[in-house]
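Final report, closing paragraph on structural work. Over the funding period we assembled a curated collection of sequence-structure pairs, and we close with a single example.
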Amino acid sequence: MRVAERKIACALAGALFLAGAAAAQQPAQQPATKPAPARPTQPAQHPAPQAQQTAPAAADQNPQRTTASYGDWVVRCEMVPGPPPQKNCEMDQLAQVQGQSQPISRVLVPLMPKGEPPKLFVQVPINVSFTAPLKITTDAKDAGISTPFRRCIPAGCFAEFELKEDLQKKFRAASEPGKILYKNAGDQDVAIPVSFKGFAQAYEALLKQ
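Its predicted structure, as stored:
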């Protein structure tokens, strides 16, 4: 596995532990899930002046984070101390079952290193069937795009799409709710909603980082 892929895999595994996985394995006709509300924009976190005076070395090791909301998507950046310092950015969307606080899916677009093609990752609970691919649709009439699951770890199972230009245009133009579709280990259809509201603005903001 290349260094870039290793870093992305670690970020995916550590960012979201999919509690409430059983709820995600309900058949598609069960009560629908919904994208989690985008978190409000927060300013970068800086160590307090007093902390800098008493322990400057420790304060310098604290990563600085920023978040910004665009519709149903959130762009996050983290400045990791070096040497050399590194800025890691991504945009994502969570979905959760109504009445439950824990997310059941995550759609992530990381800012890839220069020279690497843009990619979109989908994380769902580990109870999946590998006999059927994961599919993303942009509306009820869309045949969708599909890809096999790439890997499963205790935090969830992951599917990966190359975010080519035509796919970017498709997501930018989508005006209706879409779905993440796959089969669970019981061979039941699972449908999780995904929203493309704010995708274009979030992606533009991500590329500017």
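The longest helix spans residues 3-15. The CA atoms of residues 61 and 81 lie 6 Å apart. We thank the funder for supporting this effort.
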